[in-house]
């Protein structure tokens, strides 16, 4: 039977509205009731079997709890939840899953052997994954009940969850259906239905999911052993490895967000699927706070700010490359100028300044700077006296990002990086790393970011000499200790090793937080042993023999474009003076002062400041001041009769603070000082 026919049959069996349901919720389809009946049968059998195993064995096992305490438990009977209750009721209430000897476990799943027990809460990334993964089952159950959906897959994502299901080849899920779907999800959550874990044989699996061709295909393709795990929760039965929450009542707040289409791409012909996404939290308060945060984030979205302030735009003729308008270029150049002067001290003799100042000017499609810098190192014989050799570059880089992944300034096909490479002798490593860390701190402090450092150590499948790695790890650890900021160790565990790291790198990850406390990953410091070998880079050592340098890759802003986006959102369009594309607007009180206002504007512009003139006499003075403040001009210079005759300006800030009358020359001087020192709050300290 084709999916279409099957679906029609399901719909027909499901659509007689049940009198017990007051809302427009159809009675559960027949197949749903059948499946649930079989599940209950198998569940009762499993409960009986477990109880008898526990009784027969009656074995005491040792459990080590978080904090080091060790307690006794009964095999096949004691659950992590019971032990959490012994520790504290808060822990028992907030735990979402357990970790037993490193394996993720349901809180209600009986322990089997001596175990090292940990608990996951919503506060950790893994805890969130369990929470959202459980929530997507609730969404699936609601889709089955309301829409007669044939469920396909429902993963957690970085921020929430989605569920893909089949509604028939023609039918799509409409945005107008989300509120009803959401209501059912909330009812299911309020019903506090337990998640029940059942081990089922291949035959039982095929019986349970006989009405779901997707699950049947999954069973065929993915279930290799004699049994697999299914979970029951309310009317839902789903093929899933788990773990899940104890019950749906732990989901205090749930919101559905989007509906879209997707595709089933397993073996066989692709099938059109419907996707609904959502987010959930342990409490309603957390959901509300998230919603507020999202509204704020939407207001602060750099794409919105970029459009409103005419900083940049994108064009379909060149997707993934940003067109900076004059005001955006102003911010961009201020940022590059900020990162460049310290670079030319630090990256002294060999600053490679051949890069064109605008991406559009270059014809080369260079994806990264490392090889170019290696060639520069190698282009003539090098001596130990030249080390450390520091090369920096702002050249345009190009990456073939998929069109689906492009979004604003976050991911581009064409961008610039503040990319530096330091070629040094092994004994210079520590000083150089310290220099990089100091530089990083000085830059982030000015930008108003806090940051956290993490050292990723070598993966288990590393290349090269173990003793070289040991030494390098020690050097990095010493440099981090010396630096004095808190840092953590990410042991190079193969499974948890990020895709960015390759087996030839040691890396200091920089997790920065913007003014809103949101995390970003921009800068990086990487130590590379492989690159000098690959490019056969050598220098003449002190003893006269050729030696290989070590390479440090270092970026502080990362992509300048992306950093500009991060900064736009971080300040919400209220740029600090030194980056601001809206520094000053001169507002003449009447038409008689326009000439003087123009002169003041010219003076400011000649000093290199961004200055506009608002001589629109159609609006009252207070309306124009208000308009300037809404446009986030750091300062408004109002000039009337008195100011004109005394060659002064009357200054207000964008927060409507009146700074009074200033001599024009002195005001320009003061603005330049504040710009050059890059103070974050020029309006307050003027
Ligand atoms: Zn699941
Ligand atoms: Zn590099």
From TrEMBL:
Record flagged with keyword Nucleus: no
Domain named Aminoacyl-transfer RNA synthetases class-II family profile: residues: 363-576
Classification via Gene3D superfamilies: 3.10.20.30, Anticodon-binding domain, Bira Bifunctional Protein, Domain 2, Threonyl-trna Synthetase, Chain A, domain 2
GO molecular function, one term: ATP binding
Domain TGS: 59-121
BP GO terms, sorted: threonyl-tRNA aminoacylation
Any GO CC annotation of this UniProt entry: mitochondrion
Coiled-coil ranges (or none): none
Alphabetized UniProt keyword annotations: Aminoacyl-tRNA synthetase, ATP-binding, Ligase, Metal-binding, Nucleotide-binding, Protein biosynthesis, Zinc
Any matching Pfam family: HGTP_anticodon
Signal peptide region: none
PROSITE patterns: AA_TRNA_LIGASE_II (PS50862), TGS (PS51880)
Classification via InterPro entries: aa-tRNA-synt_IIb (IPR002314), aa-tRNA-synth_II (IPR006195), aa-tRNA-synth_II/BPL/LPL (IPR045864), Anticodon-bd (IPR004154), Anticodon-bd_dom_sf (IPR036621), Beta-grasp_dom_sf (IPR012675), TGS (IPR004095), TGS-like (IPR012676)
Known EC number: 6.1.1.3
Catalysed reactions, as listed in the record: tRNA(Thr) + L-threonine + ATP = L-threonyl-tRNA(Thr) + AMP + diphosphate + H(+)
Recorded family membership: Belongs to the class-II aminoacyl-tRNA synthetase family.
Function: Catalyzes the attachment of threonine to tRNA(Thr) in a two-step reaction: threonine is first activated by ATP to form Thr-AMP and then transferred to the acceptor end of tRNA(Thr). Also edits incorrectly charged tRNA(Thr) via its editing domain.
Protein name: Threonine--tRNA ligase, mitochondrial
Taxonomic source organism: Panthera pardus (Leopard)
